[in-house]
U-box-domain-containing protein
Amino acid sequence: MPPLGNEYAAEQLKNAGNKCFKSGDYEGAEGLYSQAVQKNSANPLLFTNRANARLKLEKWEGVIDDCIRSIELLKENMKAFFYLAQAQLAINHPNEALSSALMAYELCTNSAQQTSNAATISALVLKCKKAKWDIRERERVRRRADLLSELESMLETKYKADMDDIEARIETSATTPRIEAQEEKQELKTEFEKKRDDLRTAFAISDPDHLQKRDVPDYLVDGITFEIMHDPVVTKSGRSYERATLIEHLKRSPTDPLTREPLFINDLRRNLALKEACEEFMTANSGWVYDW
């Protein structure tokens, strides 16, 4: 246990960091949170605060380190898992990111940390799953086309080299503001993704049976299991879920998974139009859709 004086000082530094964060001064917030951690390293919330500031600064490894330290201090730590998933996804580790995001979602929906975070975390889970799927799809397509694989590798190599160059300039030059560098990195990412997608489209047109990108529309995916629905029902809030999954949820907690408002089995209504869309999609893509 840190001395009481240190706890008080850490709290004051945290509050000052919060003010910097709210004003958009993420560098200042990170520095103040770091000072707070030095005063009281037993407080898991200080690490999640700093992780959030580092997320804004795209300091991914620092985010991961902070989140792991925070989770070591507090196991049921929704924010830490949520921030951890975002950083893991940013460094292209979708398997780990999906696991972290699912843990955040479970803590959000099954504990006192529920509130309005469920929709945001649900969207992150789906994003992680799609990123994991995209890697599998990329490898599948590459195995079908050696030339495409070679050209994509060249694009990725140049993209990573350009991103590393920006990071090096940030570290060695005081004249390159991090915000300006982040904008430059976003432009590079957008340009890279466009070139990659244009390349894939060209190859897909030449061999549509094997090279067309396969994907599942978000509206067909259940917001609890994140699998394709078979028998969707709609809640009073207008969100649809797989019937069996939602009923199991309501047996444990008679509340809407997202809004947390009271919800009972009798409130559910079949979503016939969505059920038809799910059936059509499953029939048209039965050769691969069960692997999603």
About this structure: The mean pLDDT is 88.
